Structures are given as structure tokens and as C-alpha cells.
From TrEMBL, chains A, B, C, D, E, F:
It comes from Enorma shizhengliae. PANTHER family: EXOSOME COMPLEX COMPONENT, EXOSOME COMPLEX COMPONENT RRP41. Keywords: Nucleotidyltransferase, RNA-binding, rRNA processing, Transferase, tRNA processing, tRNA-binding. Phosphorolytic 3'-5' exoribonuclease that plays an important role in tRNA 3'-end maturation. Removes nucleotide residues following the 3'-CCA terminus of tRNAs; can also add nucleotides to the ends of RNA molecules by using nucleoside diphosphates as substrates, but this may not be physiologically important. Probably plays a role in initiation of 16S rRNA degradation (leading to ribosome degradation) during starvation. This is Ribonuclease PH. Phosphate binds at R90, G128, T129, R130. It comes from the Bacteria.
Length: 246, 246, 246, 246, 246, 246
């Protein structure tokens, strides 16, 4: 089969990521913070650490890592109301995804009875906010844990690896990496891949609500995803020098 | 690699589904209803149709299919409180999944300006409640739409196919189909597959929170899933004679 | 005065109950469970026991019995929304009634510091859901307490008697026992009687919103109610052998 | 059987009501208002009329009468929190009772498409707040409707009769009329009677949570209740001259 | 500049307060209570004392004084719904203002670990409910603390002074003291002054949403306010004899 | 009296503002946006315009300007939970203040039936977030209205002036302008001044919860405030050239 192609903004190739930037230490009060940009998508990730763990975790003597996700009302083209009296299922799905992803690479026993909360606030949205959030949240988590080590609260960095995320999808029959909002809103297939620095899958979520897809297409989309993950892992390493810490 | 094996309840093979039963017409008032059983997991699915569509759908002149999911408090070993003031992210994820799955095989334009709500209430939980729910919900949806055709409200059945779901996972390194609660609660990898009667993927959700997994394992789990889907599609057809309707 | 008569479904007499069925052990995880049927009305009652009592009961050193009541959305002819953000007064009244009724025949001191919750979920509604719920809830409570005795948690069954409930009403001037939905929805007088196995009144609730009634009518309705209660108490005894336990 | 007697505050007889006072026109803005006092129990009842009816009443072309009930935090010995995020079942039961009672004597068709809301705010509580509320609410309702007639909004007073309420109970085996808080809090049987000026029963609610009761006791309690109702109906008439209006 | 004048109800002068009345001991159960009237504005203030302080105050070993403010639905010309699921910003501002004002003149250390709650319920509203509430709340607070001293719970009255409040505003260019509702609703400038018995400012809130104002006008309005405060302080002293206690 | 002095961070004078920066056009999707910085306090202000006005404004045929205020959880030293189920009184006070301030300088009739919402999200908090928010919100409002003019939606800029805000306070007896968090948290007197470009007062809020203050001190604090307002008005003009538009 011939791979189909469509025109993408800025002449991007089908399997090319947008410009990605990870800026650390953007907040004075947070232990760890990172402004992550995937093109025009900008998410502010901030990690704070509190003593103790949620009630249901207490028996475990281990720590906990959780995440919150929200969009600023003016982050999108049409103002989104704040989630107050009731939560949106979408936001809850995303914050659960971020939390699971971060816990996969955290040694909760080594962390000890602390709770790390990583707040991911979308400043500007242009598709891929959840994948940007996972990628930036790892940097904020890393920096907060590093600060905790430096403060002598824990003996060593309780991170077993890196985790990053990227989206893939199908638009007009064409398989794409890292969709922007215009692409995402008319995609037939929509997929998110969270993976570690060893290339293993932490989370895969794919939906073909408009067009179910077969195993071959799944394979090609994952190949693309692997490329994106590799690039993001490299960037994380560049700003944190995580691998050099080992 | 040698496939690993563990002992399963009732001597089930690794890639064998539990006993599945689909019982139709279990409720007097609902247009369509189905009690679905995957082993000890029992979910009551009921479809009702109301005039009109949600506000944001109105411009489309098409119909809408949505789902609600809840567990009866006594459905599990430890009583689960009802979700009242606040919803659980897990339940909202599941009802969004059921809704998307059903819409994939529904021709919303042919349905016209009606809203179908499929309520999936877990009477007894033993793992796989969401996959059982999708599978039973399709039967309830089918029957409700059939009743609507018979009532002359719509000209023909607005269903383009069948949809069913099954879970796969990894326990002690062993790949399994259709996990029960005991297996599910200690799985390293947890995956759900929703697919159509043509074998195409509608939704894939896999998480390796405890143990990330590679592409080979993903492939083997999906092979198992295909087997399960095929069996469920067959059973749905048996009770509804959907394919004979064509 | 001549007693007036109307035609009832299935040729029922004015003072005749519908078919009543009490099916025990319908749920795997609940300590006690009972599916109660009053004609087409079906309520699933499940009793679970948890350690401890609500804060305001703590000083008493005694136990607590409470109930929750909910209707499945598809249990009625017109889908009823789940009670989430706000509760309905009707449901709260019913669950308070069930709780009071069960406590009347429970020795809370002998129970000790445990809380029994009896969940009454209406699977199908055709009038009399609250009276069916009280009647079935007693069976679920009995079985849960029995299991607690068998588990050695309490020395003996802390039940001092049985409790059952039935409805009476006036339709087109005609006095009726155990109204179904069609009758109930146009009743001039609507009454519920909860009574013990010794025939004493635990609770009487009568409302003549459309037509106030006099003492003579109250007397005749209570006579009918006594007949219904007697039958229900007999059935409870048949399935639980409670009186033989003494 | 010998009637038993206990000592009551102020040397009250067993079947004697407390001092009752009905003061009209206590609020400047409300169409109708009444401060009702049953001994130390004081409830401020205020009726307001708004155009239109609730959505579900619209097809009927008739009006609606509803009530709200609340206790001021300092109305009792121990401060009661305001009901904000969640309602108490008790309050909802009471406001439903008041609403039903008032509607029994209102000709909703003659009222036309208006909604009357009677707010019953307990200024001071000493037992019997719900029966005082029903009794005073009728006066407020009467006055508001009268004002509506005078304003030419409706042709004639759409009231078909009067309605009042009183409590009865059993304390230490002794049957009492109009219990104060000290009596009510240790009553074995607790009963409320709402009745019309013709002596017919609008509502009876009796509960023997601590001690079930028999038909003879029910009869004697209702005899007492009739006496109380008669007195209250007389007082209502005295302040409103309702019967003279006929 | 010539001072402008407008016609006020009852021929009041521009800098004249309405009739003010402070009636103590209006509630049987509250430790301290005061019905405050500023013309037709009537607010019932009741102070109750509970053991302990809010969690965030615990380390301080000092007490706490807080207030709640609500309007009865029928207190205004157009029925106001009760604040249940969501609070109004206006009410929260007012109760925060009352609390701060009372705390300014309370020695929280001398109070010890008790929480005083002053409930201010508006029975009838005609402008100036918040200033009436502050003024009456101080009397209720005084009486509750006095009762606490008499009960031997605290050694001496932990009040360092008196606090009262009054409103000022500009209507049609004319500067007014103590605005009633008709004046308030069309005021260009709206100001509230809370001050102590020594004439010092506890709180000043002024808003010129319709017409910003200059420093000269602010000065003249404060001069008027001082006059009002002096009168209110005098009345408080008259009913409580606070200054004689010293 | 000798003015007292304390040491301030960065050697600031008592009546000197922190570094102020106003950066426009920081968000791609918002019609108007401004990142405002008062030292380390950073607030992101974004204005969006929607068709129509709130229901209660409809009769007026005029537009509406409103504001929302929130703090990002990691904006402060100790993580602040998001306001979801319940709002904080403080936040509601602040957003009401911002809305009133902006409306004072907006010609709502000239705006026409549009609603402008200015979201003020605190990225980093170091005292004075509400005054920074008012100051930045005006710039965002200006830019959004300007865009609306350019889009031909309204004929001319419906702004009648500028509005800015600054805080003053007393710390250790010393009067200060523009308090940072360290100063604010131990201030005896805390005041906020909102004023226009003509120097008139739009809003004054002063509280002496710990130490009531006299008229002389009020005067000196307002003098300081005037200096701050003048500087902020100048900066707003510099970035928007508002006065040149006239």
C-alpha cells in the first residue's frame, strides 16, 4: 500500500513532531516545574510534595504520585468554563492517565510516605495536551524529587526511568504523528502512546469511533509513535541529564 | 519464548473465555434489555429511547447514543458507596467507552433525532464488567432500535454492525484472556479490546502500570482478544439473529 | 355501606395481594440478599456489614442498621435519572422508613459495634416498591446476621421479630390492598402499613391528598393491611425458618 | 385499662394542647405571613406568589402550592448547621408534608397558573415544628390568596377548606397530645395528624420505632388528635374569619 | 460647594439615621440573641458557643469568632431562593465582614479554645442589612460571652471594645447616611463603615461603580458615618451596659 | 509624627512599587491577553467575548463585563487545592471586585449585547494578586474590545477611561505601598485602592482587623496609593496607547 499524505501546517512530514520545548524552573514556589510546548500547545507542569499519603495507601508504607489536569478558560478558541460543581469525564481520564504513567517509573517504596502532586495546567491548547502533559510532568516530577534528595528527605532519586507520550491518528486515510487541533478534530482514528526510555509501552489508548482500524494500521501507527517517543526521551534527558545521574 | 501458564479457576485455558450468557427481555418497561454474564460477572443492560438530542447535537439533525454505568453497592466483596455528590473517574471512563463503542456501529443520521440511553448496572462484579457491559449493551441497543422500527418510528434498523468487548492481561508473566477479579487485581498488564463483527478494532486500551510491555506481547494479547471477540459476536448473533436481518 | 368493587388485573379480589416471591442468596458477595417480587415489582435487597458505627452513635456501644433505596433508571415506564448531585425527597423518605422498620426488630446492643446497610435497588417498578423493599430487606438482614453468627462475630441472632409492609388505598371510592402502579397513580387515598409478626404497627403512613378520609375508612384499610402483613410474615418464615430458630 | 399519666410542663393535662398563638401580617413584603406559636415552638410562615408553574405542571393549566421548611441554626439547644450542599431527609419529608396538606384544601384549577410558595422557618424549636408549620402555613396561604383576590388576579378565594396539624405520642406508656421537645425526644410512639375543618384525615404518620403499637392505642391517639385539630381550626377561623367569607 | 438635598422617607435629614432598635434575649436556646432594627430592616442575630476551634486554628491555643449571614426567602419584595447547592458571593462577603469586625474587638486568647458563631438571619430587608447585622451581632456576642463568664467557662469578658456599622452613599449627587432599599438601589456611590467605640475604623468599603468619587467626597461621607457610629455605639451601651462593666 | 520605616526586599522605599511589567498578546486564542507582573506576582489575564448577556441583563439591551479569578495550585508556597465543589469567599470577593472595576470604565450600552469575561489566573503569588489582576485585566479588556472594533462588531471602543489598582498597608506601624506576601501576611492594616486615570476612587477596601486605624492614617495611605495608581496608569498607556486613541 502507498502511504497517503496530506498537507500539514509548516510543511511537517506525516511522521514528524512539532517543535518541542521543555523549560524548567518556571515557578518560584514549586519544587519542580516545567513549561512544555508541543508547537502551539503549552502546558505548565508543577510538582509539589506533601507529607503523608491518601488514607487507602497508608498500610503500604509507600508513597504516592498523582496528577491534576485543567484547561485555563482562555486556552482554546472557544472559552471553556472552569470545572467546578461537576468534573468532565475527559479531564478525569487525562489526570488518571498522567498519574499512572508517572507511577510506572517511580519507586513508591523508595519515595517513602510522601505524596507528589503534579499539576498540569493547559495555558494554550492546540491538540496533544495530554501527551505534552505527560512529557512535561515527568520533568517536573524529576526536579521535585531531585530537590527532595538535595533537602535530605530521601536518600536517592526514586525514579526507575523516563516516561513520555505522543499522539498518532488517521486523517483522511493518512497516518500522522503528533496531531494538532485542526487535525485531531477531524481524525478518524485517534491514538495516544505512553512509553518509557527503553521503548516499552506504558499505556496505549486508541479509538476508531468514526472508522474502526485493523492490526496493520495499528502497527504502522505504533512505529510512528516510537519515533516520537525517542525524540521526547532525548529532550527530557537533555534538560535533566537524568541518564548521567545513574 | 515458551508461553507461560498459570492455574485458572475451573481449569480454564489461558486463552479461554468464561461461560458467557446473554439473556434478552429481562425488563418489562425497557424497550431493549439484556442480562449479560461473563462467569460470575453479571451486568443488566437496558436501552431506552427519548425524543430529542442533547443541545450541542441539535444542529446535526442526527440522533445520539449514550451510556451510563454504575455498580450496585453490594456487587463487590467490599460494599462500594453509590456515586452521588461526586463521580468516580473510573465510572466516567467506562460509560464514555460504552457510548463510543455503540456509536461506532450506529448510523446516527438514520436514527433521527432520538437519544438512546443504555444503562449498564453491575449486579455482581467479578472482573471484566466494562467488557461485559459493552457486549450486553449492544444487544439491548439492538432490541430497542428493533422495537422502534416495529413501532414505525424509524424506517429501518440503524445499525451498521455488531460490537463486543473482551479483556486481556498478564499475570505472573502469563498472558490471559478474559480475566476474573482475582486475576485482574494482580495483573501486570491490563488491556481491553472493543471490536466489530468484521474484526476491526474500535477501541484498544492497554496499561502496563506495573510492568511496561513490548510490541510482541501486544501482538499476542491482541491475537487472544480476537478469539474472544469472535465468540461474543457469535453469541450476540445467536440471540438477536442480527445477521439474518440483513 | 356496600363495599365498592373495581376490576383489578388478573381478576384479583379487592383485599388480595399480588403474587409474592422471596428468593434468597441471589448475590455472591453480599452476606445476605433477597430478590423480592410483589407481582411485577422486583426489588433486589442486599445486606452488608461493616465494622464500626456512625460517629454520632459511637457513645452508645450499640450497633446500627440503615438502608439505601434507589430505582434503576429503566425500572419504570419513563426512564428516571439517577440521583446524583441532588437527592429526591421521596427516596430519602423511603430509605428512612426502611431503616426505622428494620431497627424496630433488631437488638442493637446485641448486634454490637457493627453497621448493617441494606441496599434496596428497584429492578422493576409496578407500585409498592417501598413495601416490597421493607419485606425483602428483612430477609436480607436476617441472612446477613445469621452469617455473622456463623462466622462467630456475634453470639446469637440479634433479631427480636419479623417486620413486613404492605400498601392499601382507595381508587374510585373502592378500598384496595397492595396497589399496582396503574391503581396507585390514580388513588384518592394512599397508605402504607409496616407491622411485626405479632401484628403490631411499626409505621403507618396515610395520605388523602386528593380526598381526605374518615376514621371508618381508616379502620377498614387497616383490616385489609393486617391480612396482607400476615401473608408476608408467613412467607418470610417459610424461606428463613426464623420462628424455628427460637 | 387505666389511662396512665405523667407530669407535664405547666401542669398540662395529657390531652391538652400548649398555648397556641397565630399572629398575622408579621412581614412587610410577603403577601401573607403568620407567626405561629405552639408553646415555645415558633415558626414564621410566609406565602409568596409567582407567575407560572413548574415545568411538569404546565400541561395542567392549573396552579401549584409548595412549601419550604428550614430551622434557623440557633433555633435549638445545640446549633444546627444550615442545609447547604446536602439536604436532610427530615426537612424534605416535612416540606413535602406541608405542601401536600395545603394542596388538599386548595382548588388548583381555580388558582390558575400561579405558584404559591409557603416558607416555614423555625425561629425557635420545642417539639411539634411540623404541626405548627402546617397550621400557620394555612393562615399565610389564606392571606396571600386573599390579597391575590383583592388585587383582581383571581376571581375568588380558591380554598375549599381549612387544614391544621397536631402531634400525639406515647411517653412512658402514657398517651399525650402535642408533645414538647423533652417529651418527643423520649417518646416510644410518635404520631402526626393533619386534618380538615370537617374532621377528615389528610395525613396520618405514626411510627413506633421503639415500641410497636396496636389498633386500640391508635384509636385513642386519634381521639386526642381530633380534639387538638378542632381547637386549631377554631383559632385559624378566629384570625382569618374564613368561614364567614363563605 | 452647596450640599445637595433630596426628599427622604419620613422626612429624614440627609445625615440622619432611621429608627434603630436593639432587642436582647429574643431566643430561648441561644446564649446571646438580639433582634436589630434599622427602620424596616430587621435582622435576628444569635450567638452560640461550641467547644474547640477549626482545624487550622488549633496550634494557636486561642479561640475563634465567625458569622453566618442569610436572608429568609420572604424577607424581600421578590422572593429570594435559599442558598443551597451554591453560595452567593454577596452573602459570603457579608459574613466574612461580620466575622472580621467582631474579631477586632475580641481577645481571642482570653476566649480560649471555643468557637463563637453569630448567625445573622435577615427577617425583613430594607437596605443596610449588613450594617444592622454587624451592630446587632456585637450585642449577641456580648451576651453569649457574658453567659460564658457567668457559667464559669471563662474568667472575664474577652471583649476589648464595641463595634458597630453604618452605610453611607450618594444618590442623585446627594450624600446620605443609612440608606434604605429605595435609596440604595439607585446610589451612585455605596459605602459601609465599621468602627469601634473609640471612633477608629475597622473596615471601610466604598464603591463608585456608577460614579467614581474624589477624596473630598470620601471625607464628607466618613464624617456622616462617624455620626451614625456614635449613635449606634450609644444604643449598644444602653442595652448591654458594656462600659459600666469595665 | 515621624514616619516609621522598615527594611523592604530589594531596598524598596516605603512608598515605592515593585517592578511592574505588562506583557500583551501572550495567548493565541484569546481576543485580548496580558501577563501582569508586580514583582514576583504574576497573573495571566485573558478577555474573551461571547454573544448575548446573562438572563437578568437581557431587558437592558446593554452588554456585560465580568471576571473570574483563580490561583493555580502551585502558585503559592503551600499548594492550594482547586476550588471545585465549593468556592472560597475570598476568590468570589476578588472576582466581584475586578468585574465592578472594569464596568466602571466601560460603556455597557455602547458595547451592545455581548458579554466580556476576563479570566485572571494567578501563575505565581507574592502578595497583591488582586491589584495586579485589576491592572492587567484592564489591558486584556482593552485589547479584546479593540479587536472587536477591528472586526467591525462594534463601532468604537466602549471604554470611558482606564482603571488600575494597588495595595497599601501598615506593617510594624509603618505605612507601605504595594505589599509583597511577607509584608501582607503580617500587616495590621490592609487596604486596596482601585482608581481611574483621572485619579478618582472606584473602590476602596480597608480593613484593620488587627489594629483599627484613624482618619489621618487613612489619608496618608491614600496619598501613597495615588502615587502607585499614577504609575500603573502610565504603564497601561504605554503598552496600549489608549490616550492616543482619543
Amino acid at each position: 500500500m502507498d502511504y497517503m499524505e496530506i498537507d500539514r501546517a509548516n510543511g511537517r512530514a506525516m511522521d514528524e513532531m512539532r517543535e518541542v520545548a521543555l523549560t524548567r524552573e518556571v515557578l518560584k514556589h514549586a519544587l519542580g516545574s516545567c513549561l512544555v510546548e508541543f508547537g502551539d500547545t503549552r502546558v505548565l507542569c508543577a510538582a509539589t510534595i506533601e507529607e503523608g499519603v491518601p488514607g487507602w495507601r497508608r498500610a503500604s508504607r509507600a508513597g504516592w504520585v498523582t496528577a491534576e489536569y485543567a484547561m485555563l478558560p482562555a486556552s482554546t478558541g472557544r472559552r471553556v468554563p472552569r470545572e467546578r460543581a461537576s468534573r468532565k469525564g475527559r479531564s478525569m481520564e487525562i489526570e488518571r492517565l498522567i498519574g499512572r504513567s508517572l507511577r510506572t517509573v517511580t519507586n513508591l517504596r523508595a519515595l517513602g510516605e510522601y505524596t507528589v502532586t503534579v499539576d498540569c495546567d493547559v495555558i494554550q491548547a492546540d491538540g496533544g495536551t495530554r501527551t505534552a502533559a505527560v512529557t512535561g510532568a515527568w520533568v517536573a516530577l524529576h526536579d521535585a524529587l531531585m530537590a527532595w534528595v538535595e533537602a535530605g528527605k530521601i536518600a536517592r532519586l526514586p525514579l526507575t526511568g523516563q516516561v513520555a507520550a505522543v499522539s498518532m491518528g488517521v486523517v483522511d486515510g493518512c497516518e500522522l504523528l503528533d496531531l494538532d487541533y485542526r487535525e485531531d478534530s477531524r481524525a478518524e482514528v485517534d491514538m495516544n502512546l505512553v512509553a518509557t526510555d527503553t521503548g516499552e509501552i506504558v499505556e496505549i489508548q486508541g479509538t476508531g469511533e468514526r472508522t474502526p482500524f485493523d492490526r496493520q494500521r495499528l502497527g504502522r501507527l505504533l512505529d510512528m509513535g516510537d519515533k516520537g517517543i525517542e525524540k521526547l526521551i532525548g529532550l527530557q534527558n537533555q534538560v535533566t541529564a537524568f541518564r548521567d545521574e545513574d
